[in-house]
């Protein structure tokens, strides 16, 4: 689905990603990217979604080099990125935010919305409430729901459990597990333990480079991951 080869990304003169290669395969349900603050995880997702342009290397999305695609082409082809900061339209209602998410899939709006509110019933209960007045957990559900409205083949989630209480984070992980039955999920997380538990493939990004890769289980069992990222 996605192949990334030897990717370099800079912000101006500052290089943030070096030689990053990774694969998301058709039969992967969840591909996890973990790593410490500032490692370049968000930068990697922004580059995959066409928001940032790499200085070297190649990304192929369903066999097409993304250098030939605009950010909205990338969404249309089925890669949807739910950003770290959620980017909800705070003054718009839940319903209207879902509508914005379906801009590439207008015709299927109501049928898709029904599927999304079935997964996240709170988005029906709060249908007319302004997004800015939702709780943090509800906003996260809305951000994911809005991503699903574009009917992605690959859904990239940047720290969906970020800033949520442990119980809520656990619920988000359960939802991701369900979503991944139908949609391939790329999950960037700081909750290393839970994220790796869901992962078919996983990558550890450190200082802008892939430090370790393998199955979720391999990373969970790796001494380096255990010592640096897991407590006990
Ligand atoms: N717009 C920008 N301009 C310059 N430097 C940036 C910009 N955005 C990010 N960086 C730098 O790039 C590096 C990687 O940042 P990035 O946000 O990708 O890390 P991250 O792994 O997502 O971290 P976190 O876990 O804190 O979200 C950091 O050193 C950051 O300061
Ligand atoms: Mg980040």
TrEMBL record:
Gene3D superfamilies with a match to the protein in the record: P-loop containing nucleotide triphosphate hydrolases
UniProt entry tagged with the keyword Nucleotide-binding: yes
Secretion signal span: none
Xref: CDD domains: ABC_TM1139_LivF_branched (cd03224)
Keywords: Amino-acid transport, ATP-binding, Nucleotide-binding, Transport
Domain ABC transporter span(s) in chain numbering: 2-232
Top-level division of the source organism's lineage: Archaea
InterPro entries from the UniProt entry: AAA+_ATPase (IPR003593), ABC_transporter-like_ATP-bd (IPR003439), ABC_transporter-like_CS (IPR017871), BCAA_Transport_ATP-bd_LivF (IPR052156), P-loop_NTPase (IPR027417)
GO biological process: amino acid transport
Keyword Cytoplasm on entry: no
Record Pfam families: ABC_tran (PF00005)
GO molecular function: ATP binding
Annotated SMART domains: AAA (SM00382)
Entry similarity comment: Belongs to the ABC transporter superfamily.
PANTHER family according to UniProt: HIGH-AFFINITY BRANCHED-CHAIN AMINO ACID TRANSPORT ATP-BINDING PROTEIN LIVF (PTHR43820)
Official protein name in the record: ABC transporter ATP-binding protein
Organism (species): Halomarina salina
């Amino acid at each position: 689905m996605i192949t990334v080869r030897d990717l370099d990304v800079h912000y101006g003169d500052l290089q943030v990603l070096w030689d990053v290669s990774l694969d998301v395969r058709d039969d992967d349900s969840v591909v996890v990217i973990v790593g410490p603050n500032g490692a370049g995880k968000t930068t990697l997702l922004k580059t995959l979604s066409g928001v940032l342009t790499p200085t070297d290397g190649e990304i192929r999305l369903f066999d097409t080099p993304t250098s030939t695609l605009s950010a909205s082409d990338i969404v249309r082809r089925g890669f949807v990125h739910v950003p770290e900061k959620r980017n909800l339209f705070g003054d718009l209602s839940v319903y209207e935010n879902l509508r914005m998410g379906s801009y590439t899939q207008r015709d299927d709006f109501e049928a898709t919305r029904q599927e999304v509110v079935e997964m996240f019933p709170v988005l029906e209960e709060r249908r007319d409430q302004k997004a800015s007045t939702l709780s943090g957990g509800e906003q996260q559900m809305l951000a994911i729901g809005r991503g699903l409205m574009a009917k992605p083949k690959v859904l990239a989630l940047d720290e969906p459990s970020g800033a949520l209480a442990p119980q809520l984070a656990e619920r988000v992980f359960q939802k991701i597990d369900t979503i991944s039955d139908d949609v391939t999920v790329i999950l960037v997380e700081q909750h290393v333990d839970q994220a790796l538990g869901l992962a078919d493939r996983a990558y550890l990004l450190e200082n802008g480079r892939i430090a370790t890769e393998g199955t979720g289980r391999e990373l969970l069992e790796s001494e380096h991951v255990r010592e640096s990222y897991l407590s006990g």
